[in-house]
Amino acid sequence: MADTRTTGIPAKVTQGAKSKGGIGESTLRPDGTLKVTGEFAYSSDMWHEDMLWGQILRSTVAHAEIVSIDTSEALATAGVHAVLTHEDLPAAKNYGMEYQDTPVLAYGKVRHHGEPVALVAADHPETARRAAAKIRIEYRELPLVTDEASALAPDAILVHEDRGDHHAGHVTHPNIVHRQPIIRGNAAEAAKRADVIVTGEYTFGMQDQAFLGPESGLAVPAEDGGIDLYVATQWLHSDLKQIAPCLGLPEEKVRMTMAGVGGAFGGREDISMQILASVLALRTGKPVKMVYNRYESFFGHVHRHPAKLHYEHGATKDGKLTHMKCKIVLDGGAYMSSTPSVVGNAASLSVGPYVVDDVEIEAVGLYTNNPPCGAMRGFGAVQACFAYEAQMDKLAAKLGMDPVEFRQKNAMEQGTIMPTGQPVDSPAPVAELLRRVKARPMPPERQWESSEGADVRALPGGLSNTTHGEGVVRGVGYAVGIKNVGFSEGFDDYSTAKIRLEVINGEAVATVHTAAAEVGQGGVTIHAQIARTELGVQQVTIHPADTQVGSAGSTSAGRQTYMTGGAIKNSCSLVREKVLEIGRRKFGSYHPAWASAELLLEGGKVVTDGGEALASLVDVLEDEAVEIEEEWRHRPTQPFDLVTGQGNGHVQYAFAAHRAVVEVDTELGLVKVIELACAQDVGKAINPLSVIGQIQGGTTQGLGVAVMEEIIVDPKTAKVKNPSFTDYLIPTLLDTPTIPVDYLELADPNAPYGVRGIGEAPTLSSTPAVLAAIRNATGLELNKTPVRPEHLTGT
């Protein structure tokens, strides 16, 4: 019998259930089991026949002229295929996300400790390392720029003598990368109304992203003279625009594919080994693999900006804020990276989630000879939150008010005008988040006590067995923060999604193809959930992320669910309309609902909004595939005015609050964080399990910088003193407390599904909450992160 489906008669269909695994469900991650069993292939696991290994020789000094480079001994080493310096680079010698000031390999001078100077390719990684060690470099050391005083002195050494970036024209000194003032109202006049004024000087240490998967990648030369690059990164297309000019290749000949990423947190947004591996591969004609060890990783990516912050706040005796003045100085290190944007964030979010009509704000980023700094989770808002929350506690104490009630009295809400003049046009439940964390039951006192004696794991010092409870004091602290979501200040922020719907083996299958980097945040899960919801199919294939599809932007700024999720939703909607057009053409004459009803795709069928099934997707599509690739943008933003700082600079805000409960051994200066409860507005929980994971992860990173994490740079030499996980400590399972999470779902009407970026906000308020709790336990002021034992004991 002839197939009659194309003539307009649909096969009989029955109403079915909606597809499982859509938005709002805690679907499991497809890569989860592989990761916890050790079977997931990370970028460092990649292999290619006949591949070589790349190795970098880095500078041993922080600021020096390069007098000479002798590679002869390295070239004579058996197994070495190439030794390169800047003279061997094929094209552009500099790269950079915003401004190309970072050398691929140093030439003329080095500007920071650990800067790449030479490059080796060999047939074994140990051979490459030994050959690199044989390269002889003669340096003539130069004076160092290490802080604000040395950077801005009238006779200061210039880190970059001839700046050509667009920020250079509006800064007062060549060692200032960018300056952003914000002036609103009249802070000086408002200060006269204040019954109390508090000031504070705060220092925020340099934090490392400390991702567990080191920088790595594989570059394979192609027959067309191009390169195929498999790499762990956060932003494929940004990498592409920087790599291609340095290779002297058109972008279409640099084909990039995401490899497995072992964490990022901002540290993979800049280039690391991508250009270096590709240069070696093109030079040798062989695949080249590069994998940093942990020591190299500390030099191979940017870090969080250390900061000095000066704040002044005033309040009336009834607890209303009158004004705020602040100056924030961020150390950007030797190269620009994303320092201008971090400065903009720090300035625009420096007031915190509070109503303050009269402000005088200045944020600057400096060039120094310290390690380069750039993107890290929280992006300028973390440093500011640490300072303004300490100020809120000082004001509350001076007024004799409860610190939570004081914050609630001044909390912003929807409709509040930011210091930049931008209205907060979506829910801002700051007071409610504070209420929720305060209302939580307190963890029991003296949890270490049992009939069998003290459980030292629950005490400060843990298994080092330093105390059995003597000298241990409990403290409780609160904090709340505000973070922007997405790219800001007029940046053309968009994402692209290619969606294909077809019948495979008798079932409708959707394929989602984006360039979004999966760095551990769970994007691959979210993308499939959106496709199932929008297209009504069960089977969704996630195509590997690569540059054969349009840009998805960076996996940073809490933007991917909003932006790439929005792009997938948009492209799915266009695919759905195309499918319905096909259905109307085939079956429209057999049921009036095809012409008049609101039609949906659910459970593999075309259904009316009343739930009546009209046709299966298999019948509608048959052998036809529908594929659409489309860009999607959020509403535009504006640059901040360079004099007043006014402008609608951000697309969305996120809010989180924490309550920290700590126990402090006041005799030894040891801290045990017992609980770090969080309440956060997430807009819409696309995957509730992932939401909780993101909040707990961000909270833990904030805990780390509160009590243990800091890259220590010698002020005399500008050399990193602790580039290892032996000396740079991060929280382990034993350090991480219980993290109860309470999330609200107050939809942002401007965002897809009402979502709000999740991953960054908890990193802000966890740090000052822990510091507030330690202050509460000890009575000490504690204006620096991280808090170390000597800060508590005075030794």
Automatic annotation (TrEMBL):
Residues 37-143 form the Aldehyde oxidase/xanthine dehydrogenase a/b hammerhead domain. SUPFAM superfamilies: CO dehydrogenase molybdoprotein N-domain-like (SSF54665), Molybdenum cofactor-binding domain (SSF56003). Residues 1-26 are annotated as: Disordered. InterPro entries: Ald_Oxase/Xan_DH_a/b, Ald_Oxase/Xan_DH_a/b_sf, Ald_Oxase/xanthine_DH-like, AldOxase/xan_DH_MoCoBD1, AldOxase/xan_DH_MoCoBD2, AldOxase/xan_DH_Mopterin-bd_sf. It comes from the Bacteria. This is Molybdopterin cofactor-binding domain-containing protein.
